């Protein structure tokens, strides 16, 4: 366990079980150097407890990088409630999880993630102050999709020297909360869409409402488009799919799009501009953090628009240095975290 924590740079790992509700939950805190750790709570089934722990550890690190580059005063954390494989009382589980979050006394702030809903956050809020995305706050997806659109516009400006999306051809993988909103926005701005989803109902909506061309889940990679926008699954950029891709830009919301870091280099070698996933999809986290800080929608909106500026800066630095944007993003996030950690150590020493 300690080796896994060390590998992911995670400082704290808390496990909690409650025999009354059947709760088995994990909270991983990667860093609190910039501020309280923040990140969603997953409520899904796992083959083993170790898989659940691994997921929390890996995701917590990603949240630290995302918060650092988004300029948020937060470290990264992630929690997992292992979905029981027998009947359970969802409300009781969430309430018990809220008590677990509260025990950490603000070191970790939880929010929605795969398998959790705003109504779950309402229940957690009954027993903890450290929660965002309640029904009063809302769902972060709208802000995630806004960030994706800003990222796409920044990439189009950088690579094609174009200030609008008229006639730009975009393929979208996954028409869920984020993908459908992105499709709607792109279509309004005059982009031509090619889409796929395992859910045929969602495909039908995109065909009817956005005049999208539908392709199979296998054919999406080779679609003849300018931009590929992955909004479904992780690890979809790999040695099998990269040779098929015709798009010049990859810009989507899915987390952990690269199977391995070398896949990012393979994209760069092919001359494809890959927008680091945790930068372009940080609109949701910006919303989660600022909603928890009681900021208004206008303030959140403006901070999400900054995603486009951050990406433009990365493109320019990448052009000057020859280092791909995803590596630059990692380097910059690590520098921000290291600087914050050394400042906090100096501060602790001065208190002693
Ligand atoms: P979602 O579950 O609402 O949508 C995912 C969609 O992908 C679904 O419609 C699903 O049917 C489809 N899908 C699943 N397997 C597929 C396949 N093989 N091929 C094509 N489509 C497939 O999720 P979401 O909230 O829209 O998030 C999309 C992605 O963005 C996820 O990777 C998520 O982790 C990431 N993300 C989301 C947010 C957010 O605010 N929702 C924030 C940051 C990152």
Automatic annotation (TrEMBL):
Highest classification ranks of the organism: Bacteria, Pseudomonadati, Pseudomonadota, Gammaproteobacteria, Oceanospirillales
Catalytic residues in the record: 78 (proton donor/acceptor)
Primary role: Catalyzes the reversible oxidative deamination of glutamate to alpha-ketoglutarate and ammonia.
Glutamate/phenylalanine/leucine/valine/L-tryptophan dehydrogenase C-terminal domain boundaries: 138-345
Name of the protein in its database record: Leucine dehydrogenase
Alphabetical list of SUPFAM superfamilies matching this protein: Aminoacid dehydrogenase-like, N-terminal domain, NAD(P)-binding Rossmann-fold domains
Matches recorded under InterPro entries: Aminoacid_DH-like_N_sf, Glu/Leu/Phe/Val/Trp_DH, Glu/Leu/Phe/Val/Trp_DH_C, Glu/Leu/Phe/Val/Trp_DH_dimer, Glu/Phe/Leu/Val/Trp_DH_bac/arc, NAD(P)-bd_dom_sf
SMART domains reported for this sequence: ELFV_dehydrog
Binding site for NAD(+): 174-179
Pfam family, any one: ELFV_dehydrog_N
